[in-house]
Write a structure and sequence with these properties.
By secondary structure, the chain is α+β, with helices and mostly antiparallel strands. 23% of the residues lie in helices and 31% in strands. It is built from 9 helices and 21 strands. The longest helix has 18 residues. The chain is elongated. Keywords: ATP-binding, Nucleotide-binding, Transport.
């Protein structure tokens, strides 16, 4: 259910007869060899509510078979963008293109897509079987084909023992599997997921995350997934699209975004714990190098192309890219505010003089008490420097001041 329709609505993306899909199959396409071949493109897509523009001319190409994750903070436009692709929201400008066809005027029921919602949207008075079969029955599909599809999907999702139960007799994870199964039985051209795991507890989220990754490997179809949880994004996606205030900040593979963020927003958003970001002023150093003056700390670096004395910069270092060293070899020293001992790893939270609190990650058990000083050295090859506007200058510095790697 789209949230604006009654349970009996036959125009909604959940339940409507899928004429677009039948035309797609009639054209000779096959889903038995790795899933449907579906490409989705957004060309200068805009969305406004009255005078307020919330999506600002987004260009995006989702290639066939990809698992693409839209990630960003609350209010960034990720769910709105997903609903635009689904056909549940009209565009204000630009085009939505599915397999080469502009579908701006095509209703949700005819786009050949299946959507899985955060709220499960199951019919409480129907059994699991009826919930999964309902949309197919509305399309007048033969009963034998309906039974085959429902049982195949239930077996794939390991909910076949629960087909005669009603939703109230299921756990949260089982209900979400039913919602996913209802999408699978439609044999959609692409799957759209709108924060499907956000209602689950932490342990079940991890389990369902693995199951979704396995499901994509088995089905091979195009999937677009919305979440505010960057851990979900990193673990599920082939491509992550980071959104902020209705704009794409960066799109790429998880490790591309992790290792080479284009700006401070992506650097601070991708990664858990987040990258440590500190403001500094560049000064001339010895042998043509650069000294970053951050609070009362001085970090000596090789020359960096694009950084001149007097420039304001932001430098970033991830928690695992700092080494605890002797004081004479350190870039900064800081007292420990808090230690988190997790057995196999340790997190130190420290506040250098004149700087915000930073996070340090150490493998294994590192006993250190509150108030003790630690001396930290930044690994130059993974040190990030951004200009005053937050745009990247360099992701990693080699011994000569060029970009590392």
């Amino acid at each position: 259910m789209c949230g604006r329709s009654s349970p009996g609505c036959r125009r909604c993306i959940c339940n409507a007869p899928n004429r677009a899909w039948r035309r797609w199959r009639a054209a000779g396409n096959d889903t038995k060899s790795g899933g449907p071949v579906t490409e989705i493109q957004l060309n200068k897509v805009k969305k406004a509510y009255g005078d307020v523009e919330v999506i600002h001319g987004i260009d995006l190409h989702v290639q066939s078979g990809q698992f693409v994750v839209f990630v960003g903070p609350s209010g960034c436009g990720k769910s709105t963008l997903l609903r635009i692709i689904a056909g549940l929201e009209p565009v204000t400008g630009g085009d939505v293109v599915i397999d080469g066809d502009v579908v701006n005027a095509v209703p949700a029921s005819e786009r050949g897509l299946a959507m899985v919602f955060q709220s499960y949207a199951l019919y409480p008075h129907m059994t699991v079987y009826k919930n999964m079969a309902f949309g197919l029955e509305n399309s007048n599909m033969p009963r034998a084909e309906i039974e085959n599809r429902v049982h195949e999907a239930a077996k794939l999702l390991q909910i076949d023992p629960y087909l005669q139960r009603r939703p109230k007799a299921l756990s949260g994870g089982q209900r979400q599997r039913v919602a996913i199964g209802r999408a699978i039985v439609r044999d959609p051209k692409a799957f759209l997921f709108d924060e499907p795991l956000s209602n689950l507890d932490a342990e079940l989220r991890v389990t369902m995350r693995k199951e979704l990754a396995a499901l994509h490997a088995k089905l091979g179809g195009t999937m677009i997934y919305v979440t505010h949880d960057q851990v979900e994004a990193m673990t599920l996606a082939n491509t992550i699209v980071v959104l902020n205030a209705g704009r794409v900040e960066q799109a790429g593979s998880p490790l591309e975004l992790y290792n080479t963020p284009k700006n401070t927003f992506v650097a601070g958003f991708i990664g858990s714990p987040r990258m440590n970001l500190m403001e500094a002023v560049a000064q001339a150093g010895e042998d043509g190098g650069v000294v970053l003056l951050a609070g009362s700390q001085r970090i000596s670096l090789p020359p960096i192309e694009g950084v001149e004395p007097g420039d304001g910069v932001t430098f970033g270092i991830r928690p695992e890219h700092m080494d605890i060293v002797d004081e004479g070899d350190a870039d900064i020293s800081a007292p420990v505010d808090l230690t988190e001992q997790l057995g196999g790893e340790t997190y130190l939270f420290c506040t250098p003089e004149g700087l915000p609190q930073i996070t340090v990650h150490q493998l294994g058990q590192f006993p250190v008490g509150r108030g003790e000083m630690v001396h930290l050295r930044f690994r130059r090859e993974v040190l990030h420097v951004f200009d005053a506007e937050g745009k990247v200058i360099v992701n990693g510095i080699d011994a000569d001041g060029g970009a590392a790697g």
